Amino acid sequence: MKQSQFERQYRPEWLAFGERLDALERGKATPQDSLGFPAAYRRVCHQLALAQSRGYSPHATDHLQLLVQRGHQQLYRHHSPLTSRLLGFVLGGFGRLVRQEWRYVAVASLLFYTSLLGMAALVVLFPQLVYSLISPEQVAQMEAMYDPDTSRLGHFGERGSADDWVMFGYYVMHNIGIAFQMFAGGLLFGLGSLFYLLFNGLTIGAIAGHLTGIGYQQPFWSFVIGHGAFELTALTLAGAAGLKLGDALIAPGRLGRGEALRLAAAGGVRLIAGAAFMLLIAAFVEAYWSSMTYPSAPVKYAVGALLWVLVGLYLLLSGRSPRAAE
């Protein structure tokens, strides 16, 4: 069966199921809406499986996927409290979502890390280039933050361990703010997300190249390697969520731009939520581990490498069990 025939045959059923979901989600469902809901949900699941097995375009399967996700939430909402759903998302759903959106993640990662590493190499070769992005005052502040003689890395001036919780709050607000800029920038047809990915990559690269060039590479790299596994990964995921929104606006296919954006936002919001959770972990590591100077650099490099491996394994393997929670 051709995709157009498939859509014509089942579209009335999808519309009716969507209206039933709307009523259930608003809490205005009638007994008739609840009656037969499990059977209708199973039919939509079967139709999604058919569409995927026949290789229909994402414009058909994405809409069905959203209906199935919404139906799943309604079917199990009384049996799955919020805590269990959040735990299921962290343990399985987020990893599956990242793998599902691998194309956007790959593009965002390529933009971010290419600009970061490229700028770092250029600043090492041409030291004055750092001032094209960062003011002399900010450069001096960065040098003070990563001075090998400082008692706490990553902060301008001296501070005690009692101030770590203050820095934790600062890191959370600052990094999540950047992540949401990357995500919301997708509404400008993806240009905002593209700008923030490149700008942050270039800025971080300029700082890394400058500090490496003046001989501060050990305090700097031993500082960033630990929390960077969570922070840099989360920023690329936020950028990927924004690029997904932009793609829906640029190429909505057979759907209207509003409907295409709604479908893209369903996955994008979950992606940015997972990125925000990773940034919370990054802020904790940055405040309570990365800033410490008493662990030796080899120890911090080893811990950082382990964290990068764990993040990679989590995104690659979590949620692969057929019974893993959503």
Task: Put the structure in a nutshell.
This protein has 326 residues and is mostly helical. Helix content is 77%, strand content 0%.
Question: How would you explain this protein's 3D organization?
Answer:
Keywords: Membrane, Transmembrane, Transmembrane helix. This is Stage II sporulation protein M. The structure is a single chain. Mean pLDDT is 87; it is low at 322-326. This protein is mainly α. The chain has helices at residues 3-26, 31-34, 37-53, 58-76, 82-100, 102-125, 136-145, 164-184, 191-213, 217-250, 257-290, 297-317. The chain has 2 domains: 3-76, no CATH class; 83-317, no CATH class. The protein has 12 helices and no strands.
How is the topology of this model organized?
Blueprint: H1 3-26, H2 31-34, H3 37-53, H4 58-76, H5 82-100, H6 102-125, H7 136-145, H8 164-184, H9 191-213, H10 217-250, H11 257-290, H12 297-317
Protein name: Stage II sporulation protein M
Organism: Stutzerimonas stutzeri
InterPro entries: SpoIIM-like
The geometry reads as elongated
Report on the biggest sheet: none
Structural domain count: 2
Q: Give the fraction of residues assigned to helices.
A: over 70%
What is the overall number of helices? 12
What portion of residues belong to β-strands?
A: under 5%
Radius of gyration equals 23 Å
Query: Quaternary status of these chains?
Result: single chain
Mean pLDDT: 87
Number of strands: 0
Helix-strand string: HHHHHHHHHHHH
Structural class: mainly alpha
Q: Distance between the terminal alpha carbons, to the nearest Å?
A: 31 Å
Low-confidence stretches: 322-326
Keywords: Membrane, Transmembrane, Transmembrane helix
Transmembrane segments: 104-126, 168-189, 194-214, 220-243, 263-289, 301-317
Pfam families: SpoIIM (PF01944)
Organism: Stutzerimonas stutzeri (Pseudomonas stutzeri)
